[in-house]
Amino acid sequence: MSRFVLLRFNKEDVVEKLLDVASVKTNDDYTLDLVFENGEKRKFDMKPFFDRKPFNRLLNSPLFSKASVQYGTVVWPGNIDIAPETLWSGSEKAL
């Protein structure tokens, strides 16, 4: 169950429920295999984020593989995290 339900309106006035991340697996190509609380499996590419702080610390580092889920989102050691809505909107449904 989600820690909270946050509803927002998009441009088409459709209500979207923001979902928590339930699990994460890192891949050698810097993608994340995600499972959201609704059971949907999605793939997120981290590479476009590596030119910005704090994500630049994950590139070519053993830190990337230490991703875990805390408080419904993906986190890494060193106080690095990424919002679950970013992970959802920027990911593709896994095959």
Into which percentage range does the β-strand content fall?
Answer: 35-45%
The CATH architecture can be named as: 2-Layer Sandwich
For the largest beta-sheet, the strand count, sense and barrel status come to:
4 strands, antiparallel
H/E element order: EEEEEEEEHE
Helix content: under 10%
Q: First CA to last CA: what distance?
A: 25 Å
So what's the CATH class? Alpha Beta
Q: Please name the CATH topology.
A: NE0471 N-terminal domain-like
Uncertain segments of ≥5 residues (pLDDT<50)?
Answer: 1-7, 11-15
Number of domains: 1
The radius of gyration over CA amounts to 14 Å
Q: What count of helical segments does DSSP give?
A: 1
CATH superfamily: NE0471-like N-terminal domain
State the total count of DSSP E strands: 9
Q: Which term fits the overall shape?
A: globular
Strand order of the largest sheet: 3-4-5-9
The overall average pLDDT, rounded, is 87
3D structure, described in words:
With 95 residues, this protein is mainly beta. The chain has one helix and nine strands. The protein has one helix at 84-89; strands at residues 7-9, 15-17, 21-26, 31-36, 41-45, 68-70, 73-76, 80-82, 92-93. A hairpin with a 3-residue loop joins strand 7 (73-76) and strand 8 (80-82). The radius of gyration is 14 Å and the shape is globular.
Characteristic key phrases:
95 residues, mainly beta, NE0471 N-terminal domain-like, 4-stranded antiparallel β-sheet, 3-stranded antiparallel β-sheet, 1 helix, 9 strands, globular, disordered N terminus
